[in-house]
Task: structure prediction
Amino acid sequence: MNEFYICFMNMEEQINQLREELRKHNYNYYVLDNASISDYDFDVKLKQLQVLEEANPEFYDANSPTLRVGGAITKNFITVIHDFRMYSLANSYSKEDLEDWETRLKKMVDGEIEYTCELKYDGASISLTYENGLLQRAVSRGDGYQGDEVTTNIKTINSIPLKLKGDFPKKFDIRGEIILPLEGFKKMNEERIEAGEDPYRNPRNTASGSLKLQDSAEVAKRPLDCLLYQIAGERLPFDSHFESLEKARDWGFKVPTIAKVASTMTEVIEFLDYWDIHRHDLPYETDGVVIKVNNIFQQEELGYTAKSPRWAMAYKFKTEQAVTVLNEITYQVGRTGAITPVANLEPVALAGTTVKRASLHNADQIAKLDIREGDTVMVEKGGEIIPKIVEVDLSNRKPNSEPTRYITHCPECNTELIRQEGDAKHFCPNTDGCPPQIIGRIQHFISRKAMDIDGLGGETVALLVTNGLINNYADLYELEVSQILPLDRMAEKSAENLIAGVEASKQIPFERVLFALGIRFVGETVAKKLAKHYKNIEALANASEEELINVDEIGDVIAKSVINFFSIEDNRNTIHRLKLFGVQLEISQEELANQTNKLSGSTFVVSGVFVKVTRTELKKIIEQNGGKVSSSISKKTSFVIAGDKMGPSKKTKAEGLGVTIISEDEFLLMIS
Ligand code: AMP
Ligand code: ZN
Result:
């Protein structure tokens, strides 16, 4: 074996070892919920693997952990026929329904019947095909016979194993539900609201909408999860459904341990009663329980009806609904000027809380249900943040009732509302004269993730605005203690704190200032991207739409919004004033100094131990200066930075390929 061949082997092994290691950490974290590595170390290893894979494309693996981050775009999803049909479930709504079902079962099979009870997860169903332990494809349910292939998107869901462990069958399908846990859903919505976008309505629709997104990197950002509940295949290695769930868990799947075997219908009913109450404590939504005959031979004897297995039954929990009267429809104006109609209800008890208000979303929603003031309505609490009206009781409508006429003018400033194509909502265009918009923008500006102004809260902002002391966020920087002291409940100390907080905010870095400006669709992440790319506000303000779209992850909606923001003279003036006051409108000298294009086009391999900087720092410096870091030497390597104890084989290889070897000092000189 020659030296080159040995090198070759080592590389493949190294890559496989990293993949294996990352897989294990991934499993521990996402399936077992038990982290075995810090996020930082995980990212470093993942990056390392990415670099190795890029430099050695011959070792490509369609199931590598690096594919979890997404990036592939699917224009058209292809239709795939399921090897095993995905059936619906028969539904039951009462304990009597379940007892009737058992009576039917007993006529069709001999012997005792045991049941498995599982929760019915509320999301989008998916069928995953594994062959030789590798995920081959993921197909949505579709009409049950055929669905869409969404494999690239599904691979970004961390709890779905790409490679199985243990003693799995050669080929099988496994079915599960793609869900969006409540906490992740809440966080996604907080970010949307901060960016001035409408929140998603509920976790279920958001999860199912995620499957068909064209950009898998977008899917990767969503905190989706997958809970598995059914295996389909031939000659499978188990005799009961419960056993199949345990096996699936052994192979690396996330199968909730809530599932339980019940040997009588009474025990089934205990399970239902328990979860009817405790479902509210779960981290995800469930709309019922699925009861399955446990014994696989009995299942086979029972077979299927035209639509569903005879051996399974869904039991739906009652959605919590209440009947009340809609007293009045009022309209809220958000900081972006978006109008949200709100139903003010006669207070009513629902799911443990008293409900006084429900969201009506927009004009179309009101028209669709023909909701009117004075109506008797049914409210329901689903995954939504605030309850919604699901039905109007027309039989109770008063004879003098009039259809709701949606407002045409802003309830706060009386400006005529506009509704642009593609927007479900009406907007008040009076950006600078409409009080809730003025107050909302300043409140956003001072918020924790933005300028984080200590000593100033949302209510004080409103007070300052209504007292005519400020009208936009730049005005904050001209406030004086003597002006704010006369305000209600403003003590000397708090006034001083406020001014000090405003002063301190001048140190907040550019990316956060950019977020604080409240440009629609420019959330925290987008602001970071733009700050890094444009480096200062002038460059951003002068960018054309095409240039903006060319920035990584910036689409035309964001680009248009940025252009629009800077086209408004008042905005440009405000920014000019912020600049005069000393607010950071460019990335800091330090950051800037660290960022050049000096090394662009050069690929570096770092090897050995260093004295002045660590290996990690060295790599960071290379990337900050536009260079690329690779971990293996090839013809494409421009320089090898050799530290102490550099491996002899690396040295031979570099020399053999004629790659320049430089020392740590020589490198630092290069970028100084
Ligand atoms: P339905 O859509 O009401 O006919 O209910 C059938 C669907 O429930 C299936 O297609 C699955 O996606 C979903 N489901 C959720 N949890 C389970 C579970 N534990 N067992 C079987 N199906 C489930
Ligand atoms: Zn207005």
Summary: Residues 603-671 form a domain with the Rossmann fold fold (CATH 3.40.50.10190). The chain has six domains: 2-69, 91-316, 321-394, 435-507, 510-593, 603-671. The first strand starts at residue 79 and ends at 81. The CA atoms of residues 444 and 665 lie 47 Å apart.
